[in-house]
Amino acid sequence: MRHVIALDVGGTGMKAALAGADGELLHQARRPTGRARGPEAVVEGILDFAAELRAHGERHFGEPAAAAGVAVPGIVDPERGLAVYAANLGWRDVPLRDLLAARLGGVPVALGHDVRTGGLAEGRVGAGRGADRFLFVPLGTGIAGAIGIDGRVEAGAHGFAGEIGHVVVRPGGVPCPCGQRGCLERYASAAAVSEAWAAACGDPEADAADCAKAVLSGDPNAVRVWRTAVDALADGLVTALTLLDPRTLIIGGGLAEAGETLFTPLRDAVRRRVTFQKLPEIVPAALGDTAGCLGAGLLAWDLLTSTDRTEESA
Hints:
Strand order of the largest sheet: 3-2-1-4-8
Structural class: alpha/beta
Distance between the termini: 26 Å
Number of strands: 13
Low-confidence stretches: none
Shape: globular
Number of helices: 9
Order of helices and strands: EEEHEEEEHEHEEEHHHHEHEH
Helix content: 40-55%
């Protein structure tokens, strides 16, 4: 059976799959990145994991994978196949595409940014299916974005498209590690809400999920923290939709797990802010933590499709 390898590399763990042509995940596996052992060990772990997946495919499907796709965090240069920089993994300028191709017997390999790759999956087979224009915004440790246009995700001229978390929504506000002050992700990420709620309730272990529960119970401090985050998020999203005019706005990540505790006030806050803009449909992400693997598989199949077309026209 023809299949591809899909790898989603996170800061602490790796998710992987063998994916069929219809997007079905035929085999799934997980393992830690081993980042405590340093960036070289992380890269070697990725290569070993991919080789194990290739061997599994040979044993169970009668042939090795036809291609591979890998999604990684940080700064990515997909054209040159470089994992340029990832603070949480400690690497710089890793030629990951070429290293993987060599370990996998020379098959084509696609390298993508983790959020854009997850957005690709949400747009094609998830919450944005059928939308010609969408914006995927996961609210996690930080906030990033994926701009979807006609079944693909726009990377930008330098690979930075979609970095909505660094739109300044509170000028002169909280310092951000990026060097600015008042960035969206310092107010509306799951990490920011966790930090604010821990300070408000006096429990250093409290997180955003605890804040959402307290909102439901009517805790006034929780309501205040939550409203601060929702208002900042709405300001950032209205800036984005003014620029991009998406048909669908997909919200994912840890904060979106609060469900309507987030989506009801967020839809209201965005609606109050728009004037001439067309209000997009605001929906939760559908694929959860499988989005990265599914997107990596789609990148791999796209490589094969383009190769097949080139051979047919030759």
